[in-house]
Design a protein that fits this description.
The protein is built from five helices and ten strands. By secondary structure, the protein is of the alpha+beta class. The protein has one domain: 4-Layer Sandwich (Anthranilate synthase), CATH 3.60.120. Strands 1, 2, 5, 6, 7, 8, 9 and 10 form an eight-stranded antiparallel β-sheet that branches.
């Protein structure tokens, strides 16, 4: 059985502090795994992310974060917002007249969560990860001219909140597999803890599987193309 932190008793105590989002995790050696190889193993075609960090152009950051197991996905096109929860269908509606911009919707959703403070994990153990397109600037700088015609068909904003996270600690060559338990899901302590264990075990099993990927050559020169003016 995979050892977990916190223990079930400590988990119960954390729920009594008023926190409604409690991380449960295990730790593994990362000597034979990289963030990219782990991402390949965990990417099943659903929403996921890989966040890398760098302190300078020549020094890698301490942590890498991989998120999978979608809880909430938030998208926006102009003043139209689409939200999907727990793998359901997107619910699309216009922003309320008094809503200043789509980020306000993200703030409302994030206000649901009161994460527990625990030792042994980095400051980021889950949250909204995504992007804002350049066209979003018009919500914050109204003087910017109207956007050109949309030729890509991509959302102006996408944010993903995941239930599970894999954290690479490059300093200590270890990884932490985290499953966040949301107390508002109306389950008992035992059921929430057991569900977290099941998610962690599933990720550990995927990480233990072999990965066969052909090496990517860095010696191939890209084709030269004539420069084009804007």
């Amino acid at each position: 059985m995979t050892p977990l932190k916190p223990s079930l008793d400590d988990f119960r105590q954390l729920r009594e502090t008023g926190a409604n989002l409690i991380p449960v995790w295990t730790e593994l050696a990362a000597d034979y795994e990289t963030p990219v190889s782990a991402f390949q193993k965990l990417n099943d075609g659903g929403p996921c992310f890989l966040l890398e960090s760098a302190e300078s152009s020549e020094q890698i950051g301490r942590y890498s974060f991989l998120g999978a197991g979608e809880r909430i996905e938030i998208r926006a096109n102009g003043r139209e917002i689409s939200i999907r929860e727990n793998g359901g269908d997107f619910v699309t509606r216009p922003l309320a007249d008094d809503c200043r911009d789509p980020l306000a919707e993200v703030e409302k959703i994030m206000a649901r969560f009161r994460p527990a403070k625990v030792e042994g994990l980095p400051i980021f153990t889950g949250g909204a990860v995504g992007y804002l397109a350049y066209d979003m600037v018009r919500f914050f700088e109204p003087t910017v001219p109207a956007a050109p015609p949309d030729t890509l068909g991509l959302p102006d904003m996408v944010f993903l909140i995941t239930d599970t996270l894999v954290i690479f600690d490059h300093r200590f060559r270890k990884l932490q597999v985290v499953a966040n338990v949301f107390a508002e899901d109306d389950v008992s302590d035992e059921a929430g803890y057991a569900a977290a264990r099941e998610k962690i075990d599933a990720i550990v099993a995927k990480l233990a599987a072999p990965l066969s990927v052909a090496p990517f050559s860095l010696m191939t020169e890209p084709p030269e193309e004539a420069p084009k003016s804007n």
